[in-house]
Amino acid sequence: MIAPEVQEAALRLPAAPAYLYDLPALDEHAAAVRRALPDVELYYAVKANPDAELLRVLDRYVDGFEVSSGGEHAHVSALLPGRRLALGGPGKTDAELGLPHHRIHVESPYELRRLLATGLRADVLLRINPDLPVEGAALTMSGPFGMDETGVAECLPLFTDRVRLRGLHTHLASGLDAPALLRLAGTLLDTDQPEVNLGGGMAVSYAAPAERFDWVGYGTGLSEVRRAGQVVRIEPGRALTAYCGHYVTRVVDVKRVRGEAYAILLGGTHHLRTPVTKGHDQPFTVLATGGGPGVVDEPVTLVGQLCTPKDVFARKIVTSVRVGDTVVFGMAGAYAWNISHHDFLMHPRPEFRYLRG
Known about the structure:
eight-stranded mixed β-sheet
């Protein structure tokens, strides 16, 4: 169920579809995460959601922001001047290699040579791709990301007083719980490098939204396994902002096709692509604002307006829904609007509204 204040705000929205961000909820969550990590530097991975209002809230609690393109760098620099930025991402252009940063995450020996050729000063973390077993992950970041031992060995002799090696960066997988991430951390922190960025990957459950990553256990565990004086940094994205976002829309049709019930909603996965990309059912709440035809307490598939069978929010969920009802999808605060194919069919874009307490 959604919070009462979110429900009230959703019912007051003048138009649908719309994104509704609960800023007080984000503030409370980010503050709790910050308290749980007394010995760890906390950066926010902007790729999860670059919304300006969310970034302003997170800025109260994070030590910096991880950006993965020149566009993200420009966006955060204009919004929050002077904040620490870690520049990551594969395939950096020459222009991106010349951007000011607190740290730059180098992905390959050739990228390091290009960085040296800029003539600029740089503080580097080498992104490593170690051969470690990762079990239970929703997504593993292997393949072209980072370097193996051979690539790292090629990089080490290239550093100078101008382009300095500060430590290591790694992000091995997404969707891991605290014990699994701590097992990886124990191996990755066993190094003489003074800085280690462990990336993100904290589990977020769309099937059980009330379940949260164990930040306290993770923070305690990192304090125990880090070496004395070692800087440990993490870069969560989804696990910080997913919970504060809601996608609000309305039912325009309910019908049966070959015995199966479908509710057709305004908007679609061109606004909220998360359920398609992750292959899950997006959690939702139906607010009874309609009086049209519908179904009662039976399996319904919720779809959007796009001309593709992949435009599905949730499949065969037992619920009651009528034409005119308001549907509020939760867990829409990360990898939602910003990864969606907005212009497919050229439907109107959603509005963006904010709960401010």
